[in-house]
Amino acid sequence: MQALQVPRRSIILGISAVTIFVVLYRFFGDLPVEYYRNYGPAETFTPVQTNNDRPQPGYFKAQPEWDWDVPAYSKGWQGYARPPRNRDIVVLTASDGGGHNSQIPNVLERTLDDRERYCQRHGYTNLWLNTSRYDIGEAHRTWSKIPAVAEAFYLYPSAEWVWLIDTDIIIMNPEYDLVRQILAPDAIKKGIMRDTPILDGQLKKNPTNISTPKDYRVEDIDILITQDHISVNTGSTFFRRTAFTRMLLEMMTDYTLLMGQDHAGAEQDAIKHLMLEHPLVRSHVGVYPQRKFNAYVQGSDIMGYRDGDLLVHFAGCWTGGKCQQWFEEFWGKRGHKDRWRPEKEPLPPNDPAFMRR
Ligand SMILES: *[C@@H]1O[C@H](CO)[C@@H](O)[C@H](O)[C@H]1NC(C)=O
Ligand SMILES: *[C@@H]1O[C@H](CO)[C@@H](O)[C@H](O)[C@H]1NC(C)=O
C-alpha cells in the first residue's frame, strides 16, 4: 500500500499542475507572450540617432527604414487589442520647416518645443524628421510625410503608435490623454463612426455611396483618421505598428499607381482612394469625429475648435491671409480653461444627423 501511495500522490500533483496551467492559459492565453516581453521592466534603452541635417542618398523606397519590423502577433489581417504604454507613442512632426507654415515666425521651433513639453508631461516620445531629406522624385512634397512615418517606426522599434501631426497644429489641451481618449481599445470602440459616408467632395454633390463598416473588429483598427466636410484629412493621423499598416504605407507610396500620379491632395488622396476602393482597407481604418483630434480653426460645432478640444489645425487657412493672426491668437490660448469657444449644440458622434449636417 505504501508503495502505491507515492505514485498516486505524484499523479494527483501532476494532474493539478496541468489543470492550473490550462486554467491560467484560458485566462491569459489571448495575450501574446510578446506582451510581457515588450512590457518587461528591464528593457534596455539606447538613445535614438536622427540625422536631420544629412540628406538620404538615393530613392526613398530603397532606404532601410522601409523594412521596419512588425511583431509576430500583428503580422496577420486579424489584429490585436491592447492599450499602448505612453512611451510607445511617438508624436511625429514631419516637416522641413518650409511651405506655407514658414509665414509664421519660428513656427517649427515653437511647435516642436511645445510638443516636447506635452510629451514630457505624458511620457510620449517627441520626434521631428526633416522631410527634405527624402528623395521622393517628382512627387509633391507633402508625400514625404509617409517615408517619415516609416522612419519613425524604424527608429523606435518598440513604438506601437505613431501620431503624425502637421506643423500648423497647436496642442490646445495639454492635459489630454491620448491613450484613454483615443487609442485604448475601449476608446476606439466607443469613438469611431460606423456606417458613415466616406467623402470625396461634398456629400450632397458627390455621394460616393461607400460608408465605413457597420461592424468593426476593434482589434483590426490600425489607422485612425478624421474627415472634414470634403475628405479624410491626414494633418493628424495615427498609425499602429502592424503588417497592415506597413502594407498600406507601401501601397500609398506606390510610385506608378499613386504617388507618381497627379493627385491634387497628394498622400491624402491616396488614403482616400484606397479606402473607397478596398473593403479590407476600410475595415482597418477607424474614422473619428473630426474634432476628436483634428479640429479646424474655423467651422461649425462638427469642424471648428471648441473649448476642451485636443488641438487646433490651421488647415487651408493660408489662402485667406489670416493664418498668422489666428495662429498667434490660439497660441496665446494654449491650455486655456475659460469659456472661449463654447459648443452650441453638442450632438453625439454616432448620431446620424451628425454626418448629414
Ligand atoms: C533639412 O535638411 C536639409 C538638407 O537635407 C537642410 O538643408 C535643411 O536646413 C534642414 N531643415 C532644417 C529645418 O533644419
Ligand atoms: C450614388 O448613388 C446615387 C443615387 O443612387 C447615384 O446617382 C450616384 O451616381 C452614385 N454615385 C456613385 C459614385 O456611384
From TrEMBL:
A single Gene Ontology MF term assigned here is:
glycosyltransferase activity
Q: Which keywords fit this entry according to its UniProt record?
A: Glycosyltransferase, Membrane, Transferase, Transmembrane, Transmembrane helix
UniProt GO BP? protein N-linked glycosylation
Entry's transmembrane regions: 12-28
Q: Which domain of life is it from?
A: Eukaryota
GO cellular component terms, alphabetically, are: Golgi membrane
Q: Looking at the record, which segments are called Disordered?
A: 338-357
Q: Which family does it belong to?
A: Belongs to the glycosyltransferase 34 family.
Query: What is the name listed in the Swiss-Prot or TrEMBL entry for this protein?
Result: Glycosyltransferase family 34 protein
- Which organism's genome codes for this protein? Trematosphaeria pertusa
Tell me the organism's taxonomic lineage.
Answer: Eukaryota, Fungi, Dikarya, Ascomycota, Pezizomycotina
